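Request: Mind sharing a record?
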Amino acid sequence: MNHDTVSQIVESVVKQVLAAPASNDMTLDVARRLIEKVRARAAEMGVKAVVAISNRAARPVAVECMDDSYIASYDIAVNKAFTAVSLKMPTTKLKELAHPGASLYGIQFTNNGNIVIFGGGVPLYNLNGRLMGGLGVSGGSEDQDTALADYGESVFHQCLI
């Protein structure tokens, strides 16, 4: 590749990054794109998941229930997204801190019982490292929900561009 070609590629990438939402607000469009990616991965895994995306105030922006998902998974997914945003950590990390004798033992009984202390919730940060919202997944085992949330976190920046 010559210098001009490399310069054109770099310029194109920089324009895409600058065009991405730099705000801290989760948009419905971004939430829908992320839900679609997580839903497709859940289908590949054979998990009938509920996927919830919250904004930076921990309020739901979008929730999708796959066909025949558990009714209880709706509240669990929404609360996982709430937990990840409100405490700015994955719910797997909170699990470590909330077991008996740990520093946050009993936290699941606060916030009207909306705090979830098992895997499947992750905070979502924009390209500038600012908190935009959270992702909560429920419907499979804890390991499956965690894998789906981690996958969503790994592809989140693709949804911004």
